[in-house]
């Protein structure tokens, strides 16, 4: 008897009903992660999708595999934003625009921050894209500093702090969350400029990749 297809096989190889279940699970997970974050139990996602837990695990054998599939497009979009920043001839404008757009993505999806900041060692393609985004942002930072626009003591850990702070104000709803985020980001971007570079306490020992442990399966 042929092996049951898994989420790693091309979608067109799945039977029609299995493919439909897979898409329902992904849609349910996107909605759940966006509104409740990554800690939503797998059983709750299965209920939202209208499938059994066993069906969910046949398609996505781990929480990690489901999360990385759900956020693959968002991560690719984030990496593209960094590429656009690198292509901008104005280093400060590139830095500022990348920060503004990533924070706007974060407001739209509560799960995005944890998905971006969590390491998923088994998801090789996902990790490769995230590493490209991180390395690209490090170069955006270097260029903005070299242009004399970004304060010299800005640390990559400060991006983690910014995202976590923005996550806090984005817990409101609709226009309120978006407006709160824009105002916070505007304040922070002003403080990042070199002309406002009063001495700061040391940066905390945070990294973009490993501030969180990988989510445990539920």
Automatic annotation (TrEMBL):
Residues 41-60 bind DNA. SUPFAM superfamilies: Homeodomain-like, Tetracyclin repressor-like, C-terminal domain. Keywords: DNA-binding, Transcription, Transcription regulation. Residues 19-78 form the HTH tetR-type domain. InterPro entries: Homeodomain-like_sf (IPR009057), HTH-type_TetR-like_transc_reg (IPR050109), HTH_TetR (IPR001647), Tet_transcr_reg_TetR-rel_C_sf (IPR036271), TetR_SbtR-like_C (IPR049445). It comes from the Bacteria. This is TetR/AcrR family transcriptional regulator.
């Amino acid at each position: 008897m042929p092996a049951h297809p898994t989420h790693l096989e091309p979608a067109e190889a799945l039977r029609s009903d299995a493919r439909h279940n897979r898409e329902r699970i992904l849609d349910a997970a996107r909605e759940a992660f966006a509104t409740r974050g990554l800690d939503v139990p797998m059983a709750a996602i299965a209920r939202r999708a209208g499938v059994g837990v066993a069906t969910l695990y046949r398609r996505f054998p781990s929480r990690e595999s489901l999360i990385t599939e759900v956020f693959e497009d968002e991560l690719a979009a984030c990496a593209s934003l960094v590429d656009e920043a690198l292509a901008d001839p104005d280093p400060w404008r590139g830095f500022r625009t990348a920060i503004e757009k990533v924070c706007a993505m974060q407001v739209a999806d509560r799960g995005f921050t944890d998905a971006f900041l969590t390491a998923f060692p088994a998801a090789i393609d996902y990790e490769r894209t995230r590493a490209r985004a991180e390395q690209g942002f490090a170069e955006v930072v270097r260029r903005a500093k070299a242009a004399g626009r970004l304060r010299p003591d800005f640390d990559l850990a400060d991006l983690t702090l910014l995202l976590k702070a923005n996550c806090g104000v984005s817990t409101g709803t609709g226009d309120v969350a978006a407006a709160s985020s824009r105002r916070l980001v505007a304040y922070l971007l002003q403080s990042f400029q070199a002309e406002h570079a009063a001495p700061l306490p040391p940066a905390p020992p945070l990294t973009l990749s490993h501030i969180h442990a990988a989510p445990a399966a539920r």
